[in-house]
Amino acid sequence: MTDTKIQTYSGETQQEKQTETSEEEQCPECGGRLVSDSEHAETVCDQCGLVVEEDAIDRGPEWRAFDSAEKDQKSRVGAPTTKMMHDHGLSTNIGWQDKDAYGRALSSRQRQKMQRLRTWNERFRTRDSKERNLKQALGEIDRMASAMGLPENVRETASVIYRRALDEDLLPGRSIEGVATAALYAAARQAGTPRSLDEISAVSRVDRMELTRTYRYIVRQLNLEIKPADPESYVPRFISDLDLSDETERRARDLLGSAREKGVHSGKSPVGLAAASVYAAALLTNEKVTQNDVSEVASISEVTIRNRYKELLEASDTMTA
Prior knowledge:
The structure is a single chain. The protein has a three-stranded antiparallel β-sheet with strand order 1-2-3, with no helix packed on it. Helix content is 58%, strand content 4%. Among the domains are: 33 residues, no CATH class; 94 residues, Cyclin A, domain 1; 90 residues, Cyclin A, domain 1, CATH 1.10.472.10. By secondary structure, it is mainly α. One of its GO terms (molecular function) is TBP-class protein binding.
């Protein structure tokens, strides 16, 4: 008796499901067959043309492939690759937390096992001296870029420059930290977010002399096209650090523009010109800022600011008038 009831109940359930499915595949107006229009992302009736559903979600890829080889080549899964990791981010990492998927602490035996797995995983990730070199250098680049607040595109460019130097065998006789710092300095200038040598030296593990020597060597050997730093690229950062107004920033840019037209900026430090323009603009807008404040932000001497801001004011047509 019980088996009969179960069979009857199952049969009714299956019949209800079939009825619901058939209703979904039929037009609610005329009972016609529904078809999917992938071009317009709609579900329409092939009899009366009623649009039953619209804005359907296309869950397929955005690319087309005409054979299996092209499909395998275009298919992509997982995290994107990056030049900022020595293995391009393709390998896996074992987390340092000794917890399972539910957040429970592992036993002592399991912790020992995980530690052995981490050790072997690290050994497999760096198979030779070249990969160990690259891992250390890219970690150094990321550390210095984070300390100076450089964006991700600068770090990526610096990683590419260092990889080129390593592939062309430019490292013998030079320290890993020196070449990594030079690559970051060159990448920052290429991206239009330059940092001064003093700022780079403050976060680097090499002195300024080694940095400048290695930088010239890398630029010459790799034929890097690096334009002279524009003083205006320093102005927004100095204005932000000193908490000055937008009017002061605009005035500073105008002073630098006048100096460029009259050739005053030629042969002078871009950082010094930028700091002097900020100080001069603050005077013109009656904002309270001292030469010492600007000197600390720009990492240059007060003497340089005094000399340069007078030259900027003399070159300004507004001030001479």
